[in-house]
Design brief:
Shape: globular
Number of domains: 2
Radius of gyration: 21 Å
Number of strands: 15
Number of helices: 13
Distance between the termini: 58 Å
Structural class: alpha/beta
CATH architecture of the largest domain: Alpha-Beta Horseshoe
Strand content: 15-25%
Helix content: 25-40%
CATH superfamily of the largest domain: tm_1862 like domain
Largest sheet: 5 strands, parallel
Strand order of the largest sheet: 2-1-3-4-5
């Protein structure tokens, strides 16, 4: 049997995609192994959300190529890097990618790996179930809409069937996954059902109903990633509060505490609106914990603006913060409109302040 090595960079959605990729190549006669040097095929599932992740993927491509002197190993690249190139209708970006990496045998669209394929899941952890792919929000710093396309939700009944199947397979925990998981179903919900939440007009999401149906199954714990504040509705809060098997650690990115920075990020809410939402969540859901994402060094974030972010962290007392130093992503609005004027040393300083405050619990 031929051997395939699969390397996954980036978020949990990429991890879930790689589980389908395993099946995709299993059906083609490949068996997975953990040493790429012994592989017939190396598949690199890329992330380009941050420059560091993109550079690690490039490094692996070049490492495999340097080792592959006899051309025994075929190289396939998929994920967000390929997604951006293949969604460029002019073909220019794909040609640029092929010219830069002539050693790559195939740039595989993740869309080709159908959701009808049963993923080969990691039996050691929770079952990852993708409920939607893509994003319609266009935060100014984010490449996801260009890499993943518009938000598309999977059919409701198909997801419930998946959930029942993994429970039959012995999994006791389920994680529901989407780029904006709590807007699930808004692309096929009643378009007349519009509400305003945190200053944004939104189509009614089916996610509270979906989450409730999964929670009703005999599952020990159900979690979801990643959610956005403007889709965290009162209905969703009520469902989480009602079912004790829904994870009490909720991930709710806020990204920045300054209103002007939030506006330039196209986040659609103000600092106080975010604080009010978290206050409502804590009031209604017993023992809730909050994790978050933060970006430091976004264009225009001076010291005063940064201290607004510090203030949010102090007031909310996040359990975990995933802190990222801003890096401009080619093709995004922020990269087009603003420079990257904040020095790396200053970004590192701000990163450390927040890491000490939130993750290390060192008061400042």
């Amino acid at each position: 049997m031929k051997k395939v090595y699969i390397k996954t960079f980036g978020c949990v959605q990429n991890t879930a995609d790689s589980e389908r990729i395993k099946t995709y190549y299993w059906d083609k006669g490949y068996e997975e192994l953990e040493d790429w040097k012994k592989a017939d095929l190396v598949v690199i599932n890329t992330c380009i959300i941050r420059e560091s992740a993109e550079n690690r993927a490039y490094g692996l491509i070049n490492k495999v190529n340097k080792f592959n002197t006899n051309q025994k190993i075929k190289i396939v690249v998929t994920g967000c890097l390929t997604g951006v190139a293949l969604r460029d209708k002019s073909g220019k970006k794909l040609n640029e990618l092929k010219n830069r990496f002539p050693m790559v045998d195939e740039f595989l669209s993740i869309d080709k790996v159908s959701y009808q394929i049963d993923p080969l899941r990691n039996k050691r952890g929770a079952a990852l179930i993708i409920i939607s792919s893509g994003c319609n929000n266009f935060c100014s710093y984010c490449i996801v809409p260009m890499a993943r396309g518009k938000e598309i939700s999977r059919p409701f009944d198909e997801i419930i069937l998946d959930a029942k199947k993994v429970l039959d397979q012995g999994f006791r925990e389920i994680v529901l996954i989407g780029q904006n998981v709590n807007s699930y179903g808004s692309d096929f919900s009643d378009k007349s059902d519009i509400f305003v939440h945190m200053g944004k007009k939104r189509f009614r999401s089916l996610f509270p109903k979906l989450l409730e149906e999964v929670a009703k199954l005999k599952v020990d714990k159900v979690s979801f990633l990643s959610s956005n504040p403007w889709d965290f509705s009162d209905e969703l809060i009520e469902v989480i509060a009602k079912y004790p098997n829904i994870d009490r650690l909720l991930h709710l990115p806020f990204q920045a505490g300054d209103d002007e920075v939030l506006k330039n990020m196209n986040r659609g809410y103000a600092k106080q609106e975010y604080l009010d939402l978290v206050g409502k969540i804590k009031k209604n859901i017993k023992d809730v914990k909050i994790s978050t994402d933060v970006i430091v060094g976004f264009p225009g974030e001076d010291e005063k603006a940064f201290l607004e972010t510090v203030d949010v962290c102090k007031k909310i007392k996040f359990d975990i913060a995933y802190i990222n130093k801003y890096s401009p992503r080619k093709g995004t609005v922020s990269a087009k409109l603003w420079g990257d004027e904040i020095p790396q040393s200053e970004k590192k300083r701000r990163w450390k302040i927040l890491d000490d405050l939130v993750n290390k619990k060192i008061l400042s």
